């Protein structure tokens, strides 16, 4: 019997290690990203970059939740942590809604941001790769938490593309309003996540 179950146990252990590696990679990337995005947002006075930096902070919280869950800490703690992430998304939505609206009304023009463009472009590629890995590993483990967080990472990559588009349009053709418009995209995502978390979608 041990000969039959051992390969499965080894395979599951390997998948769990892979899940941890994916989450720690997400944590490390977003930790660096918060610093890079803060510098880029301040220098360019970009609402979208500031919002994406806050989104990176929330992604760190989501990855931490998955690490707790993979460690077998228990469903109750994971449930509380997901609700805390929901509060974080709600705060992000309020901040971006107010700031983006203020920028549009005031007609504030963000500066060009080569750093922001470069970072969001690379981040989109990295997030898509991590999301694919989490989806495969979560499916192999039959772990809904890892699969759900993988979807959050996928949308994080899509948000990076949205912010990149806003920055590129501002730089290339002077469409200054594209930056706060990208902020509204993040508002939509944050509100949707809040609704899913607090209505039991997670």
Automatic annotation (TrEMBL):
Topology within the bilayer: Multi-pass membrane protein
Domain Cation efflux protein transmembrane: 86-197
Residue stretches spanning the membrane: 21-42, 82-104, 116-133, 154-178
Entry's localization field: Cytoplasmic vesicle, Secretory vesicle, Synaptic vesicle membrane; Early endosome membrane
Record GO terms (molecular function): monoatomic cation transmembrane transporter activity
Example of a GO cellular component annotation carried by this entry: membrane
Superkingdom, natural source: Bacteria
Keyword RNA-binding: no
UniProt keyword list: Cytoplasmic vesicle, Endosome, Membrane, Synapse, Transmembrane, Transmembrane helix, Zinc
Main localization, broad class: membrane
Gene3D superfamilies: Cation efflux protein transmembrane domain
Pfam families: Cation_efflux
Family note: Belongs to the TMEM163 family.
Name this polypeptide is given: Cation efflux protein transmembrane domain-containing protein
Species name: Streptomyces olivochromogenes
